[in-house]
Design a protein that fits this description.
The complex is a heterodimer of chains A (102) and B (454). Chain A is built from five helices and no strands. Chain A folds into two domains: 46 residues, no CATH class; 55 residues. Chain A is mostly helical and 102 residues long. In chain B, strands 3-2-4-5-1-6-7-8-9 form a nine-stranded mixed beta sheet, with helices on both faces. The radius of gyration of chain B is 28 Å and the shape is elongated. The chains are: A mainly alpha (102), B alpha/beta (454). The interface between A and B is medium-sized, with 21 and 20 residues.
């Protein structure tokens, strides 16, 4: 399979999995929307690499519950169209992760 | 994975679900493919209702200027409550995984479109078979005409909306300029300054000079008042194209019989008064001249179809048939005011507008020149003229010259005995607003350029 089609397949399967989780009530409607938008940003639109990098560093097990809640609430309220907001959010997550590491 | 697909039956040839899935999948993975499919297909082209719904949903996202990705489709379908259980997601994923290479989208679109046409054709056959079974006493001619019109609509006027890329346009532009440059050189060197035509001869040197001939795809409209030479102009054009130059041409006449058309040629080609020919009041020498004249017609490219109940749909079907069978380069409709209305609610001007639009698309699709004759009002105006003018490439008016004009107009004084003029109302490729003086011999039904004095 060509590289591009492999990416399409991973993208399709991930998107389907997200909606499937929502239909099975394993994630909320808001969570589903956020994850789908994030997937589109990462694979199709290729926007805001800073946010992707920050999310890779976020390991909820290493953070206190309060910081995790702040990150989650910020992400669910995120406007993916606003590049400035995306950058600021990436900065906030980086800061919280750094604080948790210290 | 096997998903809901109609089981194999004798009607399998009527649909191609794989092609439908491939088109939908590529719409979700490539914006270019989405645009192609959006422009070329409609929901009714899909056999599977599920596929048709997904196509409509994808198009509705695209129409809101959102790129219709798989994620956007899932979100939209979820919001509209179209997914109620995980099986729906599985089905959509199955469709989405029919990946294709972007450059193959037109191939898959064509497959979907072809099956859609085939289904409409099958429906057409079924309906007509049912009609025959249920109404065996129905007028055969009427049945055939209706069937022909419906069939024509199935195949005709499938306009190719090709958008030129900057590269294509630049290439085309250079080719055109180079062609003209070479032609100009040829004129200088070989033709001693006489411009060779780009299209078919018009039958008038002055009109040839201005238009460079009737070109493939051109719609030409000629207006004249009743009794002022519409048919004479049509047959003069036919003579230039089909008799003098042996090019194939289809002539549709809505008011004359076969005999009347055949008789007209005797006057035109033998140069004998039409009245004398009609009465049979000719000498034996003249009869042999007539025989000789018809021998020219016999080997010409003139195909005639007298048709009192001509409709726009019928012109399409005839033009396509003669293009395929005889490779016609021109069609003349004499005249469009006499065409039958398919929709009685249409006003006269609406009908004319509809006919003219149809003929322009037909001319372009078949690559032929179409000449439509229209009747001018007694004051020389034309109903719906503005709309017709917009559609056509060349608009001419044929009218008698005012004797006063002949005495006072300095330009007309330069010519020997002109009695009519061709006025160029519109010329897409060149100058307009010019008046070409001609000599119209009403007795012999012939026309020619008026000779210049001196």
């Amino acid at each position: 399979m060509y590289e591009e089609q492999k990416i399409h397949k991973i993208y399709d399967e991930t998107a389907s999995l997200i909606v499937d989780l929502s239909l099975r009530h394993r994630i909320s409607h808001h969570e589903m929307h956020f994850l789908l938008n994030l997937l589109d940003q990462a694979v199709v639109k290729g926007r805001c690499p800073e946010l992707m990098e920050a999310l890779k560093k976020w390991e909820p097990d290493h953070l206190d519950p309060e910081s995790n809640e702040i990150i989650k609430a910020t992400l669910l309220a995120l406007d993916m169209q606003d590049q400035e907001v995306l950058k600021n959010t990436a900065g906030l997550i980086e800061d919280l992760v750094r604080e948790g590491d210290n | 994975m096997s998903l809901p697909v109609k089981s194999s039956s004798k009607e399998d040839y009527l649909f191609d679900l794989e092609s439908e899935r491939r088109v939908l999948s590529s719409m979700l993975h490539s914006e270019d493919a989405c645009i192609e499919a959006y422009n070329a297909l409609s929901a009714s082209d899909f056999y599977s209702p599920r596929h048709a719904n997904l196509f409509e949903l994808t198009c509705s996202i695209y129409e809101r200027e959102i790129r219709p990705t798989y994620v956007e489709l899932l979100k939209e379908a979820h919001t509209l409550g179209l997914f109620s259980n995980p099986r729906d997601i599985e089905e959509l994923k199955y469709i989405s995984e029919h990946y294709i290479e972007d450059e193959n989208i037109l191939y898959w679109i064509k497959r979907v479109k072809d099956k859609s046409k085939l289904r409409r054709f099958e429906g057409f056959l079924r309906r007509n078979q049912q009609l025959l079974t249920e109404n065996p006493d129905r007028e055969v001619e009427e049945t055939l005409l209706l069937a022909e019109e419906e069939l024509t609509n199935l195949t005709a006027l499938d306009h190719d909306d090709h958008i030129d890329t900057p590269e294509e346009l630049a290439h085309l532009g250079y080719e055109e300029v180079e062609r003209r440059f070479l032609r100009f050189k040829e004129i200088q060197e070989e033709h001693k300054g006489v411009i060779p035509l780009d299209g078919l001869p018009t039958g008038f040197d002055n009109l040839n000079h201005i238009t460079l001939g009737y070109k493939p795809g051109d719609l030409i409209i000629l207006g004249a008042q009743t009794g002022h030479g519409k048919t004479a102009f049509a047959l003069h054009t036919a003579k230039a194209v089909a008799v003098d130059n042996g090019r194939n041409l289809l002539y549709l006449n809505t008011e004359m019989s076969r005999q009347q058309i055949a008789l007209r040629w005797a006057s035109i080609l033998a140069g004998i008064d039409h009245d004398l020919i009609r009465k049979g009041d000719i000498t034996e020498t003249e009869l042999s001249k007539v025989l000789n004249a018809y021998s020219r017609l016999r080997v010409s490219g003139f195909y005639s179809y007298p048709c009192p109940n001509l409709t726009p749909e019928k012109t399409i079907s005839l033009a396509r048939k003669f293009k395929a069978q005889k490779n016609i380069e021109m069609m003349i409709i004499d005249y469009i005011g006499r065409m039958d209305k398919m929709d009685p609610r249409l006003a006269e001007w609406q009908l004319l507008e509809q006919i003219v639009k149809t003929q322009k698309i037909l001319a372009q699709n078949l690559g032929i020149a179409v000449l439509c004759l229209v009747q001018l009002n007694p004051d020389g105006s034309l109903q719906g003229a503005k709309r017709m003018k917009n559609e056509c490439d060349l608009m001419l008016k044929l009218s008698p010259l005012d004797p006063e004009d002949l005495e006072t107009d300095e330009n007309l004084k330069k010519y020997h005995n002109p009695n009519y003029a061709l006025y160029i109302e519109k010329n897409r490729d060149g100058v307009s607003g010019k008046r070409i003086p001609i000599v119209f011999d009403l007795q012999k039904q012939t026309m020619k350029d008026a000779d210049r004095r001196g």
